[in-house]
């Protein structure tokens, strides 16, 4: 759960995001956003405080994640099996 932008940087510390981003020639942030955008019942609210942020977020709309990409991401970020507490640090 990312309560703040990309879970205050912790979200991009997983190997799968880096690998998928490398395969697509983009950033981990774009991959994370593209992945959440395709999830049903998930609302993605990306940071957009500058034109650079808006352009980076826009890349995620067009990023097509392959079955291999999705499998890699789902290994590092498994779906919750029930209610999850929001941890704020």
Main sheet makeup: none
Round the mean pLDDT to the nearest integer and report it: 83
List the domain count as a whole number: 1
Unreliable stretches (pLDDT < 50, length at least 5) are none
Strands, count: 0
Structural class: mainly alpha
Please give the radius of gyration in angstroms.
13 Å
Dominant shape: globular
Q: Alpha-carbon distance between the termini? A: 13 Å
Strand fraction: under 5%
The number of helical elements comes to: 4
Order of helix and strand elements from N to C terminus: HHHH
Helix content: 40-55%
Explain what this protein looks like in three dimensions.
- The chain is mostly helical and about 90 residues long.
- It has one domain.
- It is built from 4 helices and no strands.
- It has helices at about 15-25, 30-35, 50-60, 65-75.
- α2 (about 30-35) packs across α3.
- The longest helix has 12 residues, at about 50-60.
- The radius of gyration is 13 Å and the shape is globular.
- It starts with 14 loop residues before the first helix and ends in a 13-residue tail after the last helix.
- The relative contact order is 0.19.
- The mean pLDDT is about 85.
């Amino acid at each position: 759960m990312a309560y703040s932008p990309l879970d205050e940087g912790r979200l991009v510390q997983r190997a799968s995001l880096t690998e998928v981003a490398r395969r697509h020639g983009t950033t981990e942030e774009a991959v994370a956003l593209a992945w959440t955008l395709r999830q049903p019942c998930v609302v993605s609210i990306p940071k957009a405080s500058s034109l650079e942020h808006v352009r980076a977020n826009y890349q995620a709309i067009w990023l097509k994640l392959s079955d291999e990409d999705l499998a890699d991401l789902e290994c590092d970020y498994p779906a919750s099996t029930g209610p999850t507490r929001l941890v704020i640090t």
